[in-house]
Amino acid sequence: MSLHVDSYGSGAPLLLIHGWGMHGGMWGGVAERLAEHFRVLAVDLPGHGFSAGSGKWGVGSREWEVGSGGRFSHSPPTTPHLLLDSLVDQLSAQFDEPLSVCGWSLGGQIALRWALRHPQQISRLTLVASTPCFVRRPGWEYGMAQETLAEFAAALRQDYALTLRRFLALQVRGSERERELLAALRGALMSRGEPDLGALQAGLEILRDCDLRGELPGIRQPALVVCGERDTLTPPQAAHYLAAQLPDARLAMIEGAAHAPFLSHPDEFMKHLMSFLHE
Question: What is the pLDDT of residue 81?
C-alpha cells in the first residue's frame, strides 16, 4: 500500500507524522519553513487526508479495513501494540532511507515505536506534545481517564465530525491566541476530505491500549521532546518523564502553548527544532 506523502525542499529527509484525526497538511507554514533546510516529507496516515480509502490498520483478526467503518472494540487486545506495530511497519516499508522523524501527539507514539522496531531507519526523533502512555493507569496519572476516552469513542460512532471538532477544541484549550488557533485548525481539518471512521477508531485503540514507558530506555536515538506549558491532553509532566527516561533526550517547554505548539508558537518551535537537527 502506498501512502500519500507531500515533499518539500531538498537535503536530508525529515518526516512529519500528524496526530489523531489530522493529516499531513496540518503542519502548515512550519513545513514550508523547514523545507528551506531539509527535504520535508509530510505523510497522511492510512484513512486520513489523501490516504483515505486505501490500506489497512492492524493485522489478523484485529485488522481494520479502511473504508469499512468497523466497530470500536471495548475489550483490550491480546497484544497491546498490534495495531501500532502494523502501522509502523507500513510506514517503514514506505521509506528506504534513514530519516529524522518528527511526530505530533499520536504521531509521537508512532515515532517512538518505529525507533525501537526499526532503529536503523530512524536517525533522530522529535516528539511534539507526545506521551508514552495516553490514558491513566496505576502509577501513571499524567493522562486522560479511560472512562473519558471510552465516552469519546462512543460519541465518535454517533457523530464523528462533531467529535473531531470537540477534539480540536481540547487541543488548543488554554493556549495563547486560542480562538484564532481553533479557527485555523477547523479550517484545515477537512481540507483533504473527511478521515475514515475505521481509521479513527483504530487510532483511539492505540491511544487507549499502548503503554511505551517500559521501552523508553531501549530507544537510543537522540531525541527532542517539545511540549506546551498549557497542554491538557498530554500534560507537561508526561513530557518531563519522557525526556528523563529516554537515554539521549532534551526537553523544550514552550510557554503559553497547548497541544499544538508548532502552530501557536512557530518561531519558538523552529528555534528548538533547528538547533536540535543541526547538531
Answer: 85
Cell 522496531 sits at which residue? 117
Give the integer Cα–Cα distance in Å for 50 and 3.
Answer: 8
Alpha carbon distances (Å) from 142 to 36, 114, 146, 224: 36, 23, 12, 19
Tally of structural domains, the chain:
1
Beta bridge partners of 254: 228
Grid cell at residue 266? 512557530
Beta bridge partners of 103: 17, 127
The total of other beta-carbon atoms located within 10 Å of residue 118's CB is 15
CA 151/CA 156 separation, integer angstroms = 9
Q: Are 64 and 198 in contact (CB under 8 A)?
A: yes
Query: What's the whole-model pTM score?
Result: 0.91
Residue with cell 530519516: 99
H or E segment and range at residue 223: strand 223-228
Among 46-55, 97-106, 220-229, name the one with the lowest average pLDDT.
Answer: 46-55
Identify the DSSP state of 252: E
CATH number at residue 44: 3.40.50.1820
- Predicted local distance difference test score (pLDDT) of residue 208: 93
Place of cell 519553513: 33
Dump pLDDT digits (tens) for 89-102.
Answer: 999 999 989 999 99
Q: How distant is the alpha carbon of residue 104 from its chain centre? A: 4
Cell representation of residue 35: 523545507
Torsions phi, psi for 157 (to 5 deg)? -70, -30
Question: For residue 38, what are the domain limits?
Answer: 5-277
Q: Which residues are catalytic?
A: 105, 231, 259
Q: How far is CA 75 from each of CA 48, 62, 85, 196, rounded to the nearest angstrom? A: 25, 12, 19, 21
